[in-house]
Each structure stands twice: as C-alpha cells, then as structure tokens.
Design a protein that fits this description.
Blueprint: H1 5-14, H2 26-44, E1 47-57, E2 60-71, E3 74-82, E4 85-86, H3 89-108, H4 111-122, H5 131-134, E5 135-145, E6 148-157, E7 174-181, E8 187-194, E9 198-200, E10 205-207, E11 212-221, E12 224-238, E13 242-257
Antiparallel strand pairs: 1-2, 1-13, 2-3, 3-4, 5-6, 6-7, 7-8, 8-11, 9-10, 10-12, 11-12, 12-13
C-alpha cells in the first residue's frame, strides 16, 4: 500500500479547490472577460427570450412581459402582457400592426441601411473598450455564483481617464465589482454604484448619486452567458422636471436559438 502513497498525494494536490489557486493578474482577467462578454453578447443577438419588467413607483407595482426576438439582425421587443394582464383586443391589434410594420421596414431596407441599423445597435455596447483604461482593478477575493467559482474584481475609477466612445464618459461616475467565472472567464455578476450624477441625453434624465445597479448572468450553453436579472434602485430626475424613484427589476428567461439563425461551434446549444 505504501508504494502507492506518492500517487495518492499527487491526486490530492490536483484536487485542491480553487480557493488555493494563484490569484490571476486583474488587468489580464478584465481584458479577457470583456472579450468573452462581447463575443457572447453578439452571439446572443441570434437568440429569442422572454423579458419580465417589474417597476414600483409611488407604491404602485406594474409588471409587463415581452417577447424579444432577433429580427433581421437586431432584437425586436413585442409586448405580451401589460400590468400583469393579457392585452386587450385593441392593444393586441396595435402590437401586431407595429410588428408587421417593423418587419416590412427591415426586410425592405437597403444593405447600407441594414448595416447602419446593426452598427447603431452595436455601438450601445461600445463603451466596453473603455473599461480597461477607465478603472484601477484589484482581485479582492473569490466567491460562488450559481454553484460556480468566480473571481471578485473591484473597479475603482482611474483619475484622468479620457473616454474614446460615445457613452464611455459614464464610466467616470460609476464604481463597482465584477464576479468573473473562473472556468469560462465570463461575467457571472456585476454590481455598480453611481458616485456622480449621470446624464442621459440632453434633457431626458439624470441619475443621482447613490443609485445601485446589479446584473446577474446565467450560462445558457457552452461559452454563452446571457443576462438573468437586472435590478436598479435609486433616484432620477426625469426630463429635468421631477424626481422619480428608480425601483425596477428585469428578468430574462426561456432562451431559445431562433430557427435559421445559426450558431458558432463554441456556442452550440446542448
């Protein structure tokens, strides 16, 4: 029995949990996770899903459910239930007309117009390229998210940061943490706190300091992580006229690869 002891020791060493693994370089971890997040987000544009939007304002709770589908290259959101109830006949008629009109518009647009529409949608996430230069990063520990080991990375705004994208300036007013899955190097969770007023548009709204945003993602298929839940709490000044409490929760479910959309070899559904 004794002659097998080295093999047993080797097996034990290789079974040591991730808690004792060497802490990775935070900057490298962030850059790789951003690349994977962007890749998954683009692949996810070919998937349909259900979106439940719960908002609470002035003691009134509203629940809307929508179906989001890929429509000629970009997602389209179609209302299914409103304030917890099925749509009336008139509301359903309007939703059908709205969908038919948009479908016709997208199917009949020129190649240049289609490319411009997709490019505009993609630019909504362009600020991702600014993240590595916007923050100082530090791996502050490890955690378990949905039964999987994750690195916890702290993000603190870097003085002197100059954005290169349209929405990159928002990063100056946000600090937070990222939970990065240790195996897939994908974002499993993110928390953001507003540390300075954020302006949205010229006169649309301003989100006040102290607002808190949490994003949770789930592993839909191999290599594909998609949003599971987004919660927003805080205060906004809407149209620069009145203050509005932000208390909203978005949940995403029933992910399904749209028929004919295709998928890459690393993102194939099980």
């Amino acid at each position: 029995m004794r002659r097998h002891l080295p093999a047993a020791i080797a097996a034990f060493l290789f079974s040591i949990p991730a808690a004792f693994a060497q802490t990775p370089d935070a900057n490298t971890l962030i850059r790789e996770s951003i690349q994977n997040y962007d890749k998954a987000w683009r692949a996810g544009m070919r998937w349909s899903y259900m979106q439940t939007d719960v908002t609470c304002s002035g003691g009134v709770k509203e629940v809307d459910v929508s179906s989001v589908i890929p429509l000629e290259g970009t997602p389209y959101e179609r209302l299914i239930t409103k304030n917890g109830h099925a749509l009336s006949a008139e509301e359903q008629r309007k939703e059908d007309e709205k969908y038919d009109k948009e479908l016709h518009k997208r199917q009949s647009e020129s190649a240049e117009a289609r490319a411009a529409r997709i490019s505009k949608y993609e630019k909504e996430r362009a600020f991702l390229v600014d993240i590595p230069n916007a923050y100082n990063f530090k791996v502050v520990g490890q955690d378990t998210v949905n039964g999987r080991a994750a690195w916890v990375v702290e993000l603190l705004p870097k003085p002197g940061f100059e954005p290169t994208t349209a929405h990159g300036a928002l990063l100056k007013h946000i600090e937070g943490k990222l939970w990065i899955d240790q195996k897939d190097l994908q974002w499993a969770k993110a928390e953001a706190t507003v540390i300075g007023t954020i302006s949205i548009g010229l006169i649309l709204a301003r989100i006040g300091e102290g607002a808190h945003i949490t994003l949770e993602l789930s592993r839909v298929t191999d290599g594909l992580w998609m949003p599971k839940e987004i919660t927003i709490n805080g205060t906004a000044r809407v149209l620069l006229v009145h203050n509005k409490n932000l208390d909203e929760q978005l949940t995403f479910s029933h992910y399904h690869l749209q028929s004919g959309a295709g998928t890459g070899p690393q993102l194939a559904a099980r």
